[in-house]
Fold each of these.
Amino acid sequence: MDLLLQQTVNAFALGGTYALLALGLAVVFSIMGLINFAHGELMTISGYTLMYCGIAGISFLLAVPVAIAVAMIAAVLMERIAFRPVRNSSAATMLVTSFAVSMILQVLFQNFISTRSQPVILPQVLSDSITLGGLVIGLNKIAAIVATVVMLVFLDIFMKRQKTGIAMRAAAEDFNVARLMGIRANTVIAGAFALSGMLAGVAAVLWVSQRSSVDPHMGFLPVVKAFIAAILGGLGSLRGAVAGGFLLGFIEIYLAAFLPPEMQEFREPIGLSIVVVVLLFRPNGLIPAASLKSEKV
Amino acid sequence: MITSPRKHIIASIATIIAAVILATLIASAFGAASERVLTVFFISLIAVVGMGVYSGNSGILSFGHLSFMAIGAYAASLLTLPAQLKIATLPKLPEWLATTEMGLLPATVIAVLLTSVVALLIGLAIGKLEGSAAVIATLGLLIIVHGVAIGWRDVTRGSQTFFGIPAVTSLWVAAVGVILALIVGRLYRDSISGLRLRAGRENAIAASAVGVRIRRERLISFVISAALMALSGALIAHFLGAISPKKFYFTDTFLLLAMLIVGGMTTVTGAVAGAVAITLVTEILRRFEGGFSVAGLEMPAVFGTTQIGIGLIILFAMFRKPDGLAGLKEWEERLFPVRPVAGTHVEIAQSVNSQPLTAKGMTMQFGGLIAVNDVDITLNPGEIIGLIGPNGSGKTTLMNMLSGVLEPTKGEFLLGGEKLSALVSHEIADRGIARTFQNIRLFENLSVFQNVLVAALSTRGGKYAEARTAAALARMGVAAHADADAGTLSYGDQRRVEIARALACEPSLLFLDEPAAGMNREETDNLMETLRGLTSDLGLGILLVDHDLKLINQLCDRIVVLNEGHLIAEGSPEEIQNNPAVIEAYLGPNRQD
């Protein structure tokens, strides 16, 4: 029972990170149909910012907002430089563009920073743990769960109350109609990228605080997982992204904890196969996007 | 089986064979190093063509095809590995496999067949997903197969190198393989299945409406492309002599995808162009990787020069040439344009069906909005019925339900005794109900002839498809444009091609959604004559939606009026013109005073 509870906490922590990443992908996808492969590199950029802040002796509390801000700026620049020229192209064109951006950034990290994994200085308090009713929980896990909840609440308020957020929701349902209503395409898309950069930045801080190191490929695997979480939830649906992220986190953690040792090597394929089975029954994901129905015939 | 002109196919195949043999001879003359480069190039090209067969024709990018290359490589290697080595390095193999030792050819054939079966099962699952979700699913496939290859140590040696594979792939073997792959890729593109799949890529809804079963065609191309990937995998394993799961993961996926995309996904010409371009660039950049000196100036070693180079080429291609270097056409299609078929005096067959279509209680609800509410309608062969109503009254939605594009929330419709409301779009097309769309939905990058041919091939068992195509084109007066790309025609011509495409289905009922929109008076009058001819000569029934009331009044035998989803009036044109409910719906209440 204790093990189950313990692993449930871990699953919330990992699932929350996936959820934030998947949300970042979904915000951009829902508006412009781009699956952003370079989302992981935003995470990596944020991780390196944390590393340099640590080296420069900047306190972690200050380094976190800096790292998130850097990811936001990088996301907006990425849109301006790489994605605007292909904005109205096919989904495949945009996808391939983002994958080229991702590849170039990875090589740049390798050349200008290091090909090896670099340590990140973290405050001692993150590696402490507390005992809660017989459960030993790392503070970094608690921080991850709290940060996820705060971000989700923030995003919910932003999307429902803020003008830009409402504009984004309108654009996600039908971009053309939204534009006819006077919503500026550039503003909405830049906003979506800034938001996705922010989510990637937060996810990076959480990711790094569990591992205390950063390498050029850091963002790649979690973002691939976030892609899968996003289709599991329903591509383009924000609530779906959150649901998919958490579900994938739970699948992975529970498999790692409860799969017999001789099966552990097949953990990843088994986990993804479970996702595939879910998709066979719900091809449009757990919570399908509203825009699916809007195609006019 | 092949839908394109014979001279295109002959030109293409002859060039493929000649070019591959020539390249092989030249490389042999330059010695072992260039032979190795060309062998790897040929094997990569097999894979690129394989990916193109699926991604190019279906329009769905796949990140997962290297999985099939891995399956092919491991399967073939397990069969050719010397038995003694197998017993030493893989002690837990089952007896029958451990003692098997065969040559490259039978091993490759078995590996290709095995991979095809695996691909069939995977394709059935992935086929349920649409668009970007399918793309990400292929990414998942790559991770799953990679994970299995690493975990299944007893068979694959896990993440360790699987070594000792006889290195029997010579340049000539690779040359035979690449000739085979290029020919398969080229033939599939213009096969019936390939043409249908390309129609589905251009416009899925329209393809279904002319009888194309898109999922089946996707599955066929998925299996063929997986088979080519397996061939490539078997050959690369027997060229390198040692493989590991890493070889079939993201790095090589991106390299091969880059070749496919830079060259142009949709053609074999593009696959070759992309493979040549990327291979050249990587071979050149690789020389700079370790640093070099220019005029006494030492350049430092730059890690990953080739990757940056490939990345920049892709960006350049996407910004400047999103369809790839080769564009959307094969070279021989550009070089030898087909002359339009002239002077064919075929006629469209008389409609044999004399059964009416009866719909009862048709209702469509979108969330809280009831777009069509409990509408009964009967369509008879040989009769032209006008469907009118203000904007948003549910005309198009009703038509969409009756053609299977939308599934009604409630209600059913029958043709004769057969219930059609449970059928999907392509099945309804095959029962003799064809349609056009309000926003023209042509297969824009296919020729006019191909647009119509797809419809003929996919309905009525595909019998006499070419004759039916010619007849439909002639009937609508667009035969002169047969070889033009549909997307390049004028608006009026596009409308006529759409009707021709519907006629090629040999329907008994024809649904036309605003066919006269965008036509001038003269064109509208001609269209009216043509439509009258269709009912009088062929006995077709027509359901016509249009806002041109002159057209409706002059042409229709009977008019049905919808308003806010309800049927408010039905009768002859005279009756409708004087119906107070209709006047109120169009002009608002109390206009008499």
Amino acid sequence: MSNNKLTVVDREGKSRDLEWEPDQTLMEALRDNDLPVLASCGGTASCATCHVFLADEVFDTLGERSEDEIELLVEAEGYRECGSRLSCQLDFTKDLDGVTVTLAPEE
Amino acid sequence: MSAATTEQSATTAELPPYSHDLDWPAGMAPFKVVDDGTQGDPYAHYAWMRDNAPVLRAASPVSDVWFISRYDDVRKAMRAPKVFSSQVVDPVPLTFLTLFDAPNHTRLRQVVAQAFTPKAIAAFEGRVRENAEKYLDPMIAAGGGDAVDEYAIPLSMSTISALLDVPAADFEKMKFWSDETFSYFGRLARNAEGTGTDEHSTFEFFAYLKDTMERLYREENDSVGGHIARMWKEGLLSEKEAKELCAFVFVAGHDTTTILLANAFRVFSEQPELLGRIRQDPADASMFVEELARYRGTVQRASRITTEEVEVAGVTIPAGAIVRLLPAAANRDSSKYPDGETFDIDRTTDGHLGFGHGVHSCLGAPLARLETKVTVEILAAKLGSLTLNTTRPIEYVRGNNLTNSGPEHLHVELESFSA
């Protein structure tokens, strides 16, 4: 499977284009491309340091967030009921090719 | 909890009895804040605590300490850093990541995080494998030895030293300083006794690390030590933070992995059929590693302070209470892991707390997993038999750091595999 294209808007508002590989979660694509995504818990949905925002029309196409994910997001800086996701919980799919992701503020 | 409820329960909440007032089973000493030698292998205590006192209050000369042992309760606390704060000592005495909450935790962890991603750590596999063979082969030739002194310490020291790019000739003094620094940390941050020499040794270690960082900076070195040195020279970290963060990487990466590696030997001695199984199918080594981290992980106590009154397992813990979460106790909770007191390589280990959980999850977990996986693979590939030396009982770490426990000496008899 070919890589996805990904546009990331960092916390200073600067955009950068990345390749998202099929065996990576979205968090891993961000972290392994040296974006400042701490991902403290390593991808177990137990912290909120990989919090990102997605546009409404993209967000609506994703599956339901787990209770664990929601519990952390509602406490996270800048939480949006529609748009906030933990990037470690988003696996690669071709549907997300070309998507734009915005890094949420850090605590 | 609302202010009204807090006020009401502050007057009505009953404090649970102290550990030393409980009716412990015959032969089992009451669980204590500072181990007097009865908690080297603490799992019998943990089992009793999960069933009888899932929130255990123990007295110490400084303050009460509350121990939490059930899986759901420990996991929940680890996910709630605003209620269970890591900033137990304020101001924070040492730049050790385990002592900070956000935002300082985030800022300081970011400095070293990129050196410990799975991708960054994968580059070390060849070196770890080479060193693992170098230390194991003479033990096999001798028919056995001390798995801690002769294998686990040299392997973890050589690996973590590579991250700071310090020479092998310095390993012995680094090991001494590292243990002393962990004791100093225990004294400052956990009210442990200390060694009497820990402060002096720690400051020697910091001076050595400063010299090392000066060298790494001059050499434009790529190691994590070189990265910390650049952050210091560019003014993003103070000298104190830079030295102490280097020390933290070393101390946290060395002692914990040493114990986990020794525990891998121990489990093979208890389930010798796993040598043959992993020799046949080395891919099972990763399952061994995860079950090992669940069943006999290193970190026993994660220290927290409550920022508000909180109810856990029906017990009201007041605000400002010193709490120790017990991940190794939680990991054997049979309500989460059926027959939790048994090592079962085939079980589902999802969600284990062997490398922690939440924002303070183990930074070095990818490195510890790599060293342990390589060890498991090499033991299985090279050994036909691994047994404990019955004339030399296991000696356990007597935790000056009040954090880890496991073997300090583990004497084994080894026979090489011949097809």
